[in-house]
Specification:
The complex is a heterodimer of chains A (about 375) and B (about 200). Chain A is mainly alpha-helical and about 375 residues long. Chain A has 19 helices and four strands. Chain B is built from seven helices and no strands. Chain B starts with a helix and ends with a helix. Classes of the chains: A mainly alpha (about 375), B mainly alpha (about 200).
């Protein structure tokens, strides 16, 4: 928002942005949860999404309110999906028995394609999943791209929320720079071994959420190794961000981050630096929770493909040298509070917030229902 | 003899996917790590790898035929895990030295050791002695045939068909760059550790 605009006009524009996000969020959320639980829960979730939109538009700060929305969404996932497995009190919806995880899908993609090929060859073409799943993923990639990792992913929400809770990090991640491409290596490795063994090897060995017992081997030594690697993964998800202030799981262990870094190029939204405004102070590199800004002293920062457009560097930059663009280009600017909404930044926030609000409707309203039941019986 | 060649070829064609799944975790990371943007260089790697595999197949063909002639119809149980562990060890060794950087005192450097150029051959050989299910099926047939020339023809047919499945891995290599090599080395390390663990699991 432009600083010269009065508070009243800013509030009116932010209110308009609230409505723009709330309406589609409520429609999609209602459609998703309406068959199982009251639409009232969907409305509460849509109001929360709209409130995040209002705050972003009113303050002009993207990342703080994005992180709030993102972390609450991830927390809701933990409440509904994971605690639902442990405690029968929290009656699960159908989502609990059929987990759908995008992180597992990417490294199992070749095996998945082969299975679909077999289904096609055995005349089971009506069961051909890629038509629906592939279309859904393509839609998400076109609308959000790499932004998926900073707005919608339930793992990312935990990592991001915890990394934001740290004021002064105890440990630096500078020495881990040589591991920055580990997610890409993990993606290729798991693609190959999952194809070789026809099993979702990522889920079997590295998923931090598998501690509830599923997928564990019966053998003593193998089970111990699984616990060890899953423990490492969980430590990267929970302890890593608290110690370093960075998203350690997403930066070093998530194969989907590499997958989306590759395919996210299809998405038009970009984070672009203005060399004329940049003072080469390095604030953006320190602020980036994904270690996706490469910065040599005296040189201009380079934004790596792992950037997931969270906006943290954009809010931190003292000279406002970073901005959201469409393929590096900006829209013509309009005056006034409402006119400021017609910018790439707010198009992107609208796209990201409505889509992630609709996606998280798979669990967030149900988690709210779980909590209400738990408290009021 | 043509009938035996066809039999081996058909076995390779029908089970080639499993061969691909067994060879790809080795060949793909190696090509990523060591390949260049020059297609002919990468093709050289592929040819050496395939040559190593071919040599392993021929040795197995002779061994299995001799064992069949001697009336022994089984391989020692440790053969497969030992081959896997050897394969994994070689990959880890290579990846660790390559990750250590260009300035490290590395015996694998081409200027220090000309045998460095032959590593794909060795990698292909240890891949070849990894007894995957289609390979085991061919081996049993060889034990039954118990004839060295016939065994060789049968495995040449099998090798020719399975190579058709591994060849497409070359398609992506002209786009390899420095970044892809760095990713490839990390992948090579992961795949090596995986094979090493799978092999050593048998002995502990």
């Amino acid at each position: 928002m432009e600083p010269a605009v009065s508070r009243g006009k800013k509030a009116a524009a932010a209110g308009l942005f609230f409505a723009l996000v709330f309406i589609p969020a409520f429609i999609f959320s209602g459609l998703i949860v309406g068959r199982e639980i009251s639409r009232l829960y969907a409305m509460v979730w849509a109001i929360f999404s709209g409130a995040a939109a209002f705050a972003i538009a009113y303050t002009g700060k993207v990342s703080f309110y994005r992180r709030l929305f993102f972390s609450v969404s991830a927390l809701a996932f933990l409440v509904h999906f994971k605690l639902g497995l442990l405690d029968k009190v929290l009656a699960p919806t159908c989502f609990v028995s059929t987990p759908y995880c995008h992180i597992a899908m990417a490294p199992y993609f070749l095996g998945y394609l082969y299975q679909q090929y077999l289904a096609l060859m055995s005349s089971g073409w009506r069961l051909w999943g890629p038509l629906t799943l592939g279309a859904a993923w393509l839609f998400v990639t076109l609308a959000l791209g790499r932004g998926w990792c900073s707005w919608a992913c339930f793992y990312g929400g935990i990592d991001d929320g915890l990394s934001g809770a740290v004021r002064r990090p105890l440990v630096g991640t500078g020495r881990l720079r040589f591991l920055r491409d580990l997610p890409a290596a993990l993606l290729i490795f798991f693609l190959l071994v999952s194809l070789a063994n026809m099993a979702p090897e990522y889920c079997l060995w590295l998923c931090p959420f598998k501690f509830t017992g599923a997928f564990l081997s019966r053998g003593g030594g193998e089970r111990a190794a699984q616990y060890g690697l899953m423990g490492l993964s969980l430590a990267a998800l929970v302890a890593g961000p608290l110690l370093t202030g960075k998203r350690t799981f997403c930066s070093y262990l998530c194969p989907f981050a590499a997958w989306q870094a590759l395919w996210g190029r299809l998405n038009p939204f970009r984070l672009t630096g203005d060399a004329a405004k940049c003072s080469a102070c390095g604030t953006c590199e320190r602020a980036c929770p994904m270690n996706a800004v490469s910065f040599a002293p005296g040189a201009r920062p380079e934004i790596l493909a792992y950037c997931n457009l969270c906006g943290q560097c954009l809010d931190a930059c003292p000279s406002a040298a970073l901005r959201y663009t469409v393929f590096g280009l900006e829209l013509p600017s309009f005056g006034g509070a409402a006119g400021a909404l017609v910018s790439v930044k707010y198009f992107y926030v609208f796209s990201a917030l409505t889509l992630s609000s609709a996606f998280s409707s798979l669990w967030a309203p149900a988690a709210l229902r779980d909590m209400v039941k738990l408290i009021f019986g | 003899m043509p009938a035996l060649f066809s039999e081996g070829f058909l076995l390779g064609l029908s089970t080639g996917f499993y061969c691909l799944a067994a060879c790809l975790p080795l060949l793909a990371p190696y090509l990523l790590a060591e390949g260049k943007m020059a297609w002919d260089f990468n093709f050289g790697i592929f040819l050496q790898f395939t040559g190593g595999r071919f040599a392993a197949y021929l040795i197995f063909a002779v061994l299995a035929s001799v064992l069949g002639e001697a009336g022994r119809y089984a391989l020692p149980a440790w053969a497969l895990p030992a081959a896997m562990a050897a394969c994994g060890f070689l990959m880890v060794f290579l990846a660790v030295f390559r990750l250590a950087g260009r300035d490290s005192p590395c015996l694998l450097k081409s200027d220090l050791n000309p045998w460095f150029h032959r590593i794909p051959l060795l990698l292909g050989f240890v891949t070849g002695i990894n007894v995957c299910p289609p390979f085991a099926a061919g081996l049993i047939r060889l034990l039954q045939l118990a004839d060295v020339p016939k065994g060789l023809v049968y495995f040449i047919g099998f090798f020719s068909a399975t190579t058709l499945f591994t060849a497409p891995v070359m398609l992506g290599t002209p786009w390899l760059g420095r970044r892809a090599s760095e990713i490839g080395r990390l992948t090579l390390l992961l795949a090596g550790l995986w094979y090493l663990a799978l092999g050593l699991k048998f002995f502990f």
